[in-house]
Structures are given as structure tokens and as C-alpha cells.
Amino acid sequence: MKYFETRKARIEIIPMIDIMFFLLVFFIMITLHMIPDAGIASRLPTSSSAKAMPKPQITLSVDSHGVIHDGSLQLTAAQLTAVLRNKPDPATLQVVLAGDRDTSLQQLMRVMDACRNAGVSRIGLAAHQEGGT
Hints:
Elements: H1 14-34, E1 46-47, E2 58-62, E3 68-70, E4 73-75, H2 77-85, E5 94-99, H3 105-117, E6 122-125, E7 128-129
Helix pairs in contact: 2-3
């Protein structure tokens, strides 16, 4: 007589949890790729000895007029020194300067001096590999 017994309906929850986690991960990954990097378009100089560096904590752009850009912020040398001093440990910061092709060496040195006045000693210069874009 077991054939006529009604069984209580069960909702299997484990496959539903798996699907929800999959959707969560999918949307997180898509959202991370939708966040644009903000920056200033510049024409970096080329170098035959350029090599890949680890991702810096701070990338500063210096345009041909000597204006310092940190993301969308425009800074003076004194403001840059103050911003870098307020970081947790300036001595371990990695700063990369992305100077425009037309930026003078004096303007880059002014930015490097501002970084060093804040206690930053790990400063790199961004360049494209020669023959690349």
C-alpha cells in the first residue's frame, strides 16, 4: 500500500544555493571589469631597456606644462608632498611618474623632489618599450 501513500514535497535547497553563488560571482566579476581606470592620456617616451615593473601604489602623470595629475586631481608640488606625507608609510610607497613625451626633465625632477621631500624613495619612470605603442 505504499504506492498510494502521499509523500511530502521537498524543495532541494543545495542546487539553488550553488546557482545563487555562481550568479553572485558572475556579477562581481562583471562589475569589476566595468569600473574604468581614470587617468590623463599621455604619450609616454620610449626606451629600449624598459621592463615591466610591479603595479605601483601611486601613478602620477606630468603633462607637458608641468601640471601634476593624481587620477583626476591636479596638484602642485607642495600639495603632492602633503598628500604623500599623509600616507601610512611613505618610505615603502612605490610611485611611478608618467611624464608626457614633451615634458622637460626639470619638470620631472621637480615632481621627484616633491616625492622625496615626503619621504618616498621608490620612484620609477613610465616608458613604452621601443617599437611598441
